Amino acid sequence: EAGVVQSPRYKIIEKKQPVAFWCNPISGHNTLYWYLQNLGQGPELLIRYENEEAVDDSQLPKDRFSAERLKGVDSTLKIQPAELGDSAVYLCASSVAGANTGELFFGEGSRLTVL
Amino acid sequence: QQQVKQSPQSLIVQKGGISIINCAYENTAFDYFPWYQQFPGKGPALLIAIRPDVSEKKEGRFTISFNKSAKQFSLHIMDSQPGDSATYFCAASMTYKLSFGAGTTVTVRA
How many structural domains compose chain A? Predict the structure, then answer.
């Protein structure tokens, strides 16, 4: 069974440029998460989707970050414009809806470097 | 504000030794406590988890000890192997929100 797939794995951009990350969750997983992981720290939740509905986006910086999950499967996270402090790993995770809330399956992440 | 405090930040253990990582939390509404293992360049992967009504859970060489009254829990890695070298995150979950500790980097020397 394929795991959570993310792309690109690495992205280097100049500050003020836009960037987008894509995530394909495990088949059948209705819940999708985007996490931010700074170097040497634990992941922090940005947004959680149940199917196509964003049910928790309280930690998403909405002035520059946006996300969508059309058709309740793949998801895209966008940053526009990027700032130096956005350099981090962006992790996508998925889980079965209604499953134990701590059992998440993570992708390998997209590492963003803003110059 | 970090809801789960984890220590130590890093540790080095000899092959065959025991690694111990400690975590503490404040919010008694947390109802599930997983541990995740992360290798460089990979995403975190669920290792073992426990509910607060259980004091200990063992899976192979990995054991979680849970002290509900002290609001503390710990991971013990017995007979540590070089392949266990990774970063370990404790976490606490409530209402679909998973809060992670800052992580402990474990290095197992052969």
Answer: 1
DSSP-based three-state secondary structure for A69 = coil
Rounded-to-integer distance, Cα A92 and Cα A28, Å: 15
* CATH code (residue A26): 2.60.40.10
Show residues of chain A in contact with B94, CB under 8 Å: 101
Residue A114 falls within a domain, yes or no? no
The letter for the amino acid at B51 is: R
3-state class of A82 per DSSP? coil
Contact criterion met (CB < 8 Å) for B44 and A91: yes
pLDDT in tens, B30-83: 999 999 999 999 999 999 999 999 999 999 999 999 999 999 999 999 999 999
CB of B103 within 8 Å of a chain A CB? The answer is yes
Smallest Cβ–Cβ distance between A43 and the set B32, B95, B100 belongs to: B100
Q: Are A109 and A37 in contact (CB under 8 A)?
A: yes
Q: What are phi and psi of A85, to 5 degrees?
A: -70, -5
